[in-house]
Amino acid sequence: MGGEGTYAADTGAFHYIAPSAVPDAVKKVAPATVGIIGKPLGSSSASDNRYNLAHGTGVIVQSDGLIITNAHVVKDMAQLIVVTADGKQYAGTTTHMDEESDLALVKIEAVGLQTAVFADSSELEVGETVVAIGTPISFALRNSVSVGVVSGMDRSLHSTYRLIQTDAAINPGNSGGALVNLKGEVVGINSLKLSAAGIDGLGFAIPSDTVMYVLQHFLAYGHVKHPGLGMDVEESWAAIVGLPTDEPLQIARIHPGTSAEAAGISEGDVLYSIGNQNVQSIVDLNEYLKQYLPGDKVTLTLQSGGDIVQKEITLVETSLN
């Protein structure tokens, strides 16, 4: 019969994966996967060495040639060439970029392209089989496939938002490619791999819910309107090192001219919650604020001068890095 499966001892359930599941998933998303190649700027030889090239991967999100990829793939890259799965080449232009989320849009002049289907990444489970598609190491290896599992969810690793951890091989050049489930739906955009002696099978992807959040802002506003509190906050030592903690955030600095200053919030105050949501880390804060826009009002619960108080502030537009 072939195939493989996983057994969940706690429920007694056996999950069977048919032998064609991975190839079927690849067939659905491969036509929407592109390779991106160009000349890196800032190198003394970039202008006179035709072999001095950098490359990555992208995913088609609109049939008229709109492609999402990583910001670090196309930042400081000139003369973009996009190669679709059928081998056709197009000149590409970076139209939008958001380094906080590490996402960008590239546009090519084309019509009738197959687009990827995005899943709800909140439904992804640890242990679920996923497939990474991209352009590892060499541009000649376009649409290479690697298979692994979701190793962890809600990871934060020098990132603004949470990441998906996977052991599917994500090598240089895979950045910007799709991480897909066995339905062929995109659950994340591959972003990075940790490379060091003794480290293997440790890759990360931007969840599809963050991808769609950024894409919607790109199309609606031309850039991502990151909302902020108008203050800098600090995490507890436990949160910084990754330990489970209920310790709240502490106010480190109030930005002048903001409603946080007008509300009388002070450095050293302790921030417990926004609305009804407790926040223990900066990534928690950034994730929660994705539902708001600058100009929206939120209520903060703080400890100030030994008293628990609530303050209403107006969110400001901010750079999160």
From TrEMBL:
Domain spans labelled PDZ: 227-306
Coiled-coil region(s): none
Q: Which CDD domains has this protein been placed in?
A: cpPDZ_Deg_HtrA-like
Q: Which InterPro entries match?
A: PDZ, PDZ_6, PDZ_sf, Peptidase_S1_PA, Peptidase_S1C
One GO molecular function term of this record is: serine-type endopeptidase activity
Q: What are the protein's UniProt keywords?
A: Hydrolase, Protease, Serine protease
An annotated GO BP? proteolysis
Q: What family does the database annotate?
A: Belongs to the peptidase S1C family.
Question: How is this protein named in the record?
Answer: Trypsin
